[in-house]
Amino acid sequence: MSPLTHLVGSWLVAVATTNNPRDRKLVTLAGVLPDADGLGAVADVVGSWITGKECTFYYYQTYHHLLLHGWPAAIVISVLLTSFGKQRGRVFFLCLLIFHLHLLGDLIGSRGPEVGDLWPICYSEPLFRHPIWFWKHQWKLDGRQNQTFFAVVFATALWLAVKRGFSFVEIISRRLDAPFVKVLQKWRHQLWKIKDWATRQNFGLLV
Ligand SMILES: [Zn+2]
Question: Cα(19) to centroid of ligand 1, in Å?
Fold first, then answer.
């Protein structure tokens, strides 16, 4: 799945399972950090730009879904994040859980453009080659199922943000989060006003 789906989905789980902003952020990060092994794409593009050679996406192809998408990375990332946590036992367990939800999401929805472009989960990489897991019905990364899933997750996150007064933007910056949530709350207020007006109009017609 896309990094944005992982971010918003992981934040939703973190909101439901933690009771303070720091642990919420750490648990959310456990669902996002596995995709850091795709940052080789940046090195590929920059390297190609500097050397003028064709971009082959060597680092991306070599490391993405292999370096940080198995149990070794699950342990390293969870231990690392837990060291910053408040309720450490809980944070460790939740980091492991959400990391594996990321793997499950990728197993379900990370297919490339062609039917045969299945993206496997190599659960013991980078230490061992096996086991390798595929799901032959894997959703296309930019396909209809992934788009629908993202829309549901995103709408739920916006609804929760308006209700709670903070959103997934807090993972990037808490300073940016405050105005973002204010705009959402303003929109909800305007929607209510429109709804009230429409209700009054209908009532007037009935009378
Ligand atoms: Zn991933």
Answer: 26
Ligand 1 centroid to residue 80 C-alpha, Å: 18
Three-state SS at 161? helix
Beta-carbon contacts of 72 under 8 Å, excluding residues fewer than 6 positions away, are 124, 125, 126, 127
90 in any annotated domain? yes
How many structural domains are present in the chain?
Answer: 1
Residue 33 maps to a domain: yes
d(CA 78, CA 95): 5
Using alpha carbons only, give the angle 155, 157, 158 rounded to the nearest 5 degrees: 65
Ligand 1 centre distance from Cα of residue 1 (Å): 7
Is the predicted pLDDT of residue 149 greater than 80, yes or no?
A: yes
Q: pLDDT tens-digit profile of 65-79?
A: 899 999 999 999 999
**101: which residues sit within 8 A by CB, 6+ positions away?**
9, 10, 13, 31
Host domain of residue 73? 3-166
Convert the pLDDT of each residue in 154-189 to its tens digit: 999 999 999 999 999 999 999 999 999 999 999 998
Phi and psi at residue 121, to the nearest 5°: -105, 115
Q: Check residue 120 and give its pLDDT.
A: 93
Tell me the pTM: 0.89
- In which band, very low, low, confident or very high, does the pLDDT at 123 lie, cut at 50, 70 and 90? very high
Q: Is residue 204 part of a domain?
A: no
Any domain includes 79: yes
